[in-house]
Specification:
This protein is 56% helix and 11% strand. By secondary structure, the protein is α/β, with parallel strands linked by helices. The protein has an eight-stranded parallel β-sheet with strand order 2-1-8-7-6-5-4-3. Strand 5, helix 10 and strand 6 form a beta-alpha-beta unit. Helix 8 packs across helix 9 and helix 9 runs parallel beside helix 10.
């Protein structure tokens, strides 16, 4: 019997794992997910690394060795992260080559302390990508108003970008425009326009934000409606003359990626967002729990409709219920960026503490 994960992959959606730990790599679990659950990529973030380092001894030897060599703080973190992500990238290399660079990606986030400085963000993105030495490593840059110029510059510089922290159609379109401008500038400069990118829309946080504040029949429907509205904008953009002109000179389309697709509400289906957001030429990056639930008992829903289906009617009902969608999108993005800074600070504090403990233990 064909697994649901493979059926979804065959329908044209890439399944990526939103997790990385050293034991996933060394224990063979990631290799098994690739072989058995059609996983074709992976995303990471500071929170994931913080948990991995805090809750295991897997990193102790590497931390001891690197601190002895004088590394600390962000430098220490990026060394540890690149060790994990280059190993993961190598596991996905065959997929990356077989899909001609469309799939088989891993992602690493730049420091959020650079968020308001495009030039420094681009320099860091170029540096991290070069240090990894892997063609299938995305650098994650937030699609905040301050991040948009950095996305354009990174793409122009030839660095593959996973645009993160997008919540609405408007935020997605701003990121897509930045990608297109970067590619158009490459074409104008006589450079190869094939620089990959994904645009990551965060879904479940919408529903968490309005939980208990809207009529019960609207529960768990906001994130999916926003995603459908965004998908229509994505399909319209893919069909636009501007995009087609770029494809004509060898560019690639930036794929839409569904992020934050683990169900937060214990009363809702654990594969709610996966079933609702099946769509060709897109990616769903899911927590391990969601991936395993999908493999165990998930079903695939109908493919997303090009025209967004009932998205606008559903969103009108949220507006009537007093939800200001534009203001909430801005809040979610701002809160997401602040949470990212907090995770980063927690991660660096965790490394500091771990280094000190290991040093004392001698």
């Amino acid at each position: 019997m064909m697994r649901t994960t493979q059926r979804l992959h065959d329908a044209g959606q890439s399944l990526w794992l939103d997790n990385i730990t050293r034991s996933l790599l060394s224990g063979g679990t990631l290799a098994r997910y690739i072989a058995e659950l059609s996983v074709t990529g992976l995303t990471s973030n500071p929170t994931i690394f913080d948990h991995a380092i805090k809750n295991s001894h897997d990193y102790d030897a590497a931390i001891r060795e690197k601190t002895a060599a004088g590394l600390s703080g962000e430098d220490l973190f990026f060394e540890l992260a690149l060790e994990d992500l280059t190993r993961a990238a190598d596991l996905f290399r065959k997929i990356h080559e077989a899909t001609n660079g469309v799939d088989g990606w891993v992602s690493l986030e730049v420091s959020p302390n650079l968020a308001y400085d495009a030039a420094t963000t681009v320099a860091a993105a170029k540096d991290l990508h070069a240090r990894a030495g892997r063609t299938n490593l995305f650098i994650k840059i937030p699609g905040t108003p301050a991040g948009i110029p950095a996305i354009e510059e990174a793409i122009f510089a030839g660095v593959p970008v996973n645009v993160t922290l997008l919540f609405s159609r408007e935020q997605y379109l701003a990121a897509a425009e930045a990608y297109i401008r970067g590619i158009e500038r490459r074409v104008a400069a006589g450079l190869n326009p094939h620089v990959a990118s994904v645009a990551s829309i965060f879904v479940s946080r919408w529903d968490s934000a309005v939980a208990g504040k809207v009529p019960a029949d609207l529960d768990e429907r906001l994130g999916i409606a926003i995603a459908r509205r965004t998908y229509k904008a994505y399909r319209d953009l893919l069909a636009s003359d501007r995009w087609l002109r770029l494809l004509n000179v060898g560019a690639r389309s930036q794929r839409l990626l569904w992020a934050s697709t683990g169900t937060k509400d214990p009363k809702a289906s654990d594969v709610l967002y996966v079933k609702a957001l099946a769509a060709p030429h897109s990616v769903n990056t899911m927590p391990e729990k969601t991936l395993l639930a999908l493999a165990d008992h998930g079903e695939i829903g109908a493919m997303l409709s090009h025209d967004g289906g009932d998205a606008e009617e559903v969103l009108d009902r949220f507006t009537q219920a007093g939800v200001d969608l534009e203001a909430l999108a801005a809040d979610l993005q701002r809160d997401g960026a602040a949470a990212f800074v907090k995770s980063w600070d927690d991660l660096l504090a965790c490394l500091l503490e771990k280094s000190a403990t290991l040093r004392r233990a001698g």
